[in-house]
Design goal:
The complex is a heterodimer of chains A (about 650) and B (about 250).
Chain A lengths: L14 H8 L5 H4 L3 E5 L3 H13 L2 E5 L17 E2 L11 H11 L6 H21 L24 E2 L5 H18 L3 E4 L2 E9 L2 E9 L5 E5 L2 E4 L20 H8 L4 E2 L4 E7 L22 E5 L16 E2 L1 H5 L9 H16 L8 E4 L1 H7 L1 H19 L8 E10 L2 E2 L12 E3 L17 H21 L10 H24 L5 H15 L6 H21 L11 H25 L23 H4 L1 E6 L8 E6 L14
Parallel strand pairs in A: 1-2, 1-9, 2-5, 9-17
Antiparallel strand pairs in A: 3-4, 6-7, 7-8, 10-16, 10-18, 11-15, 12-13, 12-14, 14-15, 18-19
Helix pairs in contact in A: 3-6, 3-12, 4-5, 5-12, 10-11, 14-15, 14-16, 15-16
Chain B lengths: L2 E8 L6 E8 L8 H14 L22 E2 L2 E2 L21 E5 L8 E3 L2 E2 L2 H10 L19 H11 L6 H5 L6 H12 L8 H14 L10 H5 L7 H17 L1
Parallel strand pairs in B: 1-5
Antiparallel strand pairs in B: 1-2, 3-4, 3-5, 6-7
Classes of the chains: A alpha+beta (about 650), B alpha+beta (about 250).
Amino acid sequence: MKLDPRIPGGPLADKWTKFKTNVPLVTPANKRKYEVIVVGTGLAGASAAASLAELGYRVKSFCFQDSPRRAHSIAAQGGINAAKNYQNDGDSVKRLFHDTIKGGDFRSREANVYRLAEVSVNIIDQCVAQGVPFAREYGGMLANRSFGGAQVSRTFYARGATGQQLLLGAYQALSRQIGLGRVRMFPRHEMLDLVLDEGRAQGIITRNLVTGELTAHEADAVLLCTGGYGNAYYLSTYARGSNVTASWRAHRRGALFSNPCFTQIHPTCIPVSGEYQSKLTLMSESLRNDGRCWVPKSAGEKRSAAQIPEGERDYFLERLYPSYGNLAPRDIASRAAKRVCDEGRGVGPSGLGVYLDFSEAIGRLGESTVKERYANLFSMYHEITGESAYESPMRIFPAVHYTMGGLWVDYHLMSNIPGLFVLGEANFSDHGANRLGASALMQGLADGYFVLPYTIGDYLSKQKPGGKKTNRQAEAFWQATETVQARTKKLLGIRGTKPVSDFHRRLGKILWDQCGMSRTKKGLEQGVEEIRGLRQEFWENVNVPGSGEDLNQSLEKAGRVSDFLELGELMCRDALERDESCGCHFREDHQTAEGECERRDEKFSHVSAWEFQGEGKAEVRHAEPLSFEEVQLATRSYK
Amino acid sequence: MKLHLRVWRQKGREAEGQFETYEAKGLNPNMSFLEMMDVVNDELTKEGKEPVAFEHDCREGICGSCAMVINGEPHGPNKAATTCQVYLRSFQDGETLTVEPWRARAFPVLKDLVTDRSAFDKVIQAGGFVSVNTGQAPDANAMPIGKEDAEKAFDAAHCIGCGACVAACRNGSAMLFVAAKVSHLGMLPQGQPERGERVRKMVAAMDAAGFGNCSNQYACEAVCPKEISADWIGRMNRDYAVSAAKKL
């Protein structure tokens, strides 16, 4: 299969402007004839739905939560990047572009990333106009802080709740359109299938999570803005409801899945405290502006942090990466933390933890300034651990946080299925093999506010609105509804002995052990085998109580976990086939003498794109080669 | 650690509900309250019974999904915390806990501990926004906003829309929720052009949704996980009065 990314010609810096100038338009009178389905109401979905409705399209918006305001973008803490150069510290579109490409270890598409950096400046303007209360300096100007992998301050923030404020901005824009009757909102609806006719996306099948009713929704285009798949690992910083179902069901209908093994493990999360644990909590990367990571110099240290003298502490990030220090990118910082723990120098009851110490910052800035910057994070830490980070250092450990992989899209954000667009974390396009901090919010809003509203015009202007109401199309919707019904019936009919959570936990453990921070050929092969076995056991022995005709949370979970059980195998297979190390994907057999990633550009400077072949059959791997015109491929160094 | 639970069970919106009793055993004080509910639900599943439906998502106190009244208190015993941020170390071994859904006319029960809070969305749809289309914005630094004003606006904007304020109020009033949004936008220069219209429309939507009025008991403020101040209600009333008078 030939994958055409449809990147416009001309110099990198002119591509987007050229595209916008030449893209075919849909006249205002015709826009209202087109109906667009938007699945998901996070930053990407809410911003896209609102912007499309403002343009005059008819929009149907879906979310599984009880309200669009609860999508998991709400939990993003630290900030959003933009190349505003308000700090006069040498930032520019080109520098943000370059940092993002390098941060992703040269596994993302140049043209998409350049566009992202370009529109980043408009996002801040838009959000401020909506009333997002970003942090300000005394003179009334916007404040910035630094995030990992950058040597400038380009991160805008609203205390430790930037995602919440940005999402509420987008939610309010969406609410305005709902109030005006231009968006029809379907909360508590889960997308369970994609409907194609003549190879084009024509609609979706949803389940009403309160009544169990299945409905077919037709449209001229379908947008998936359904987030990442990190919950495959069971324990993660994702919301408990975050899932891959919409993306995966589209994949089963032919949408290619790219780089599924590119999963971000964030260095600073509160360590696991016991078997019962249901989720992990992030401690924002912004803390590394002032917190210093350290472990004892010797293994088996029994003294408390306060009793260990300065000379016996190893500030390992500052030692290993002097020019970026504690703000080394996430993949690198996580691996360094894992390594010191593997050496027996980890702290806390499990030995799986490192200190994040604020005593130097409290001494330098005073406790009140530290409180002003991070109070909500310190209180979250206190609630969960019962410890005060003002008095003793935080204990942190890496945890699954984000997925760079996702459905394959071209420059238009359209998947290989015409009419199916994928935005935000659900697509693969901008972050390569590692995402920089504060770039997820940037990408979600860039896609929804400023990219898709242009690129969708190119597709719709070539389609007749309303599609063709043919028998064949009706047949496609009927067949998809039957598929969903059959799966539901099957899940409810097993009545085995184990709850869904049991399978999910075991899948998570396999993925964390074999497809986590460090990967080997043998481990990944074992992972594939184990997941196949687990999947079989699931379909024989899961217990899903209740019926399909009312609110049934066990059934919802079972459906999602059944998809994770398929995806998990693909994650391992993708990691197995990518016989190199890059960014988050660290294959032990491909490392430098210093233990850093060793890329194999001659063989793997490409995006993998997996094609579903049918139940139980091995997927086929395609590749989109990456060509770099602007940046020089180099070994990534933060030393 | 062990706890006795009395949990509200209700099959559906129209069904009669009742309390059922469960023993939660082998608990760890470092577990969260919702993790205990997970354990109880897995046990019920193994016994072939239907688990307790309850709402939750982020489990870090920001999405506003979780909503349980524990021993009569919305979000349980901890100050400035959501239900998901309650840990078992807050309870005594062997204690009996009564767990109920939000109870308010505007939030009907859908099943067990799950209620319908879409009335909040309707209030926002009526006017809780700045009417600015994508692409219309001037440069972000073109409009300076004092640090203190920005911080105060954030304090109001931090509301997570969980509805604890309504559940705590004897009148089932949503004044704290509405006032927080009215004040967040009304305090910023961006929100000025629609300030009067916004408060009138939002208050009208609030009344239409069946929320009660405020009688200055401040139970809302006491249970708010984000410590939204009841002072905002005073500010909203003033905005409303000024706007209504101007319209006359």
